[in-house]
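Appendix B, record 7
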Amino acid sequence: MASPKIAVYSLPDLKNTTDDALPNYLTSLKFKQSHLLTDVRLALGYAAVIISAITFYFDYKLGWEATKGYTLWAVIAYFVLNSTLTYWIWGVERGTVFVGKRNGTQVSISSSVTKHIPTYKLTVRYLDSSKPTNAWQTLDISAPFTKWFSADGYFVAKPFQDWLAAEAPPIGEADPRAVREAKGPTGPSASREGGVKRSMDMVKTEAADTSSPSSNASPAPRSRKAKK
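Structure tokens (predicted):
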């Protein structure tokens, strides 16, 4: 299915679309995604909503005087849950878009952007339990959104996947084909040009050939010699 068209000048749209594509790519490489962070966030949010709904119901049915003692504790619980939820989002998740593992290698990836700068930044943390060091390694990588978004605002998965595999070792191990294609025949500099730009250049060239006046002109008639 084709990716939806987005506004190329909207950093939130660019980031969110890319964030959504990242887990899809990694799960296709047999990474097993962990949903623990999302589950805890949802549990905290739903618990706060349930407390609010129960408090409203009993206040409506029994009146303020009968429920004011319970309402105080409900307000305190609601405040605690929302404070915990805020801390969980900003202090624990911190922009995490994927947590998972594959063949003993654990991976945690978080994304971010800087205001008014169309550059996608990733912090990749990975742990290979098969190695004797057994320590988490951190890698910061970044690339402009134009590397995998067309000028019309369409997301192109192939350049994004090639870049991610070439820059992040645990992903490159899972998709060596993408690493080879990202480097290309002329080395790493070829990958920096981006597959989107090359595709757009080919489209422009074909369009120029089609609309060329010489291609539509009919062949000139042959001149005939007058008979004597």
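Remarks on this record: Residues 186-228 have pLDDT under 50 and may be disordered. The CA atoms of residues 165 and 173 lie 8 Å apart.
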